[in-house]
Amino acid sequence: MLQYVTVNIDGSDIKAPRGSSVLEVAVEYGICIPHLCHIPNLSDIGACRLCIVELVENGQSKVSTSCTLSIQQGMVVKTNTDKIRRLRRNVAELLVSESPNSRAVQDIAVRCGVKDVRYPFRNNNCVLCGRCVRACTELWQAKAIGFVGRGIDRHVERPFNLYSELCKQCDSCVQLCPMTITPCDGPMKPGEEYLCGKCDSQLMIQEERPESCAWCRLGEGFNCGRYAGV
Ligand code: SF4
Ligand code: SF4
Ligand code: FES
């Protein structure tokens, strides 16, 4: 039987099933926490760090990724403080610098208030979100791809970089990869990358249909709109 606990998110007391993550509860109640690597019903690995929130305990706050933070009775969480917005903007900047060609990443960065990117562009075309690997392992039990390497050499690869018999040709890894959303203005050339801000198209959808938030195309959609125009 489901057991419910009460948590306070952004000043509102919310009842939610024990075992849920703060991100899941926030999404359920329409509280917008930007997120990228989370996929509903798959494990969370806290890879993108966009979903950070402040957890307040005994008058002290600590920053945690909300997708990996299980709710506890009496927990107090703040999702949209100055500190969180500043840190999140920095995370979004780093994501753009990793993969400036990704429209999904650019969209998220624009919505997090990023105007310029202070970090060198690395053109990795992968933000190591692990969506592909978890889909492959958990949805299809295929284990046909995985992370290899450490630090800046970390990347996704097939075992021994060979065609894998384990692959079920399901295409989930491609479908769920944020890099596969068509860039807004075509692929950028190395050395000419910029945060184009042409993601207005999605913000316009939001203006025309305020009830449908365009923000969470990768976050499975929920209403809020409060990050538009930050
Ligand atoms: S297409 Fe192959 S590698 Fe990709 S998720 Fe499916 S089984 Fe895994
Ligand atoms: S290939 Fe795509 S889905 Fe896989 S880790 Fe990189 S960005 Fe994420
Ligand atoms: S770290 Fe939580 S959604 Fe990516």
For this entry, give a set of tags.
230 residues; alpha+beta; Ubiquitin-like (UB roll); 2 domains; two-stranded antiparallel ribbon; globular; disordered C terminus; binds iron/sulfur cluster; binds FE2/S2 (inorganic) cluster
Description:
The chain is of the alpha+beta class and 230 residues long. It folds into 2 domains: 4-85, Ubiquitin-like (UB roll), CATH 3.10.20.740; 100-207, no CATH class. The protein has helices at 22-28, 82-98, 103-111, 131-139, 172-175, 200-208, and strands spanning 4-9, 12-17, 52-57, 60-65, 76-78, 146-148, 155-157. The strands form 2 sheets. A 5-stranded mixed β-sheet has the order 2-1-5-3-4, with helices on both faces. Strands 6-7 form a two-stranded antiparallel ribbon. A hairpin with a 2-residue loop joins strand 1 (4-9) and strand 2. Mean pLDDT is 81; it is low at 200-207 and 209-230. The structure holds iron/sulfur cluster (2 copies) and FE2/S2 (inorganic) cluster (FES). The site of one iron/sulfur cluster has 13 residues, from helix 4 and helix 5. FE2/S2 (inorganic) cluster binds next to loops.
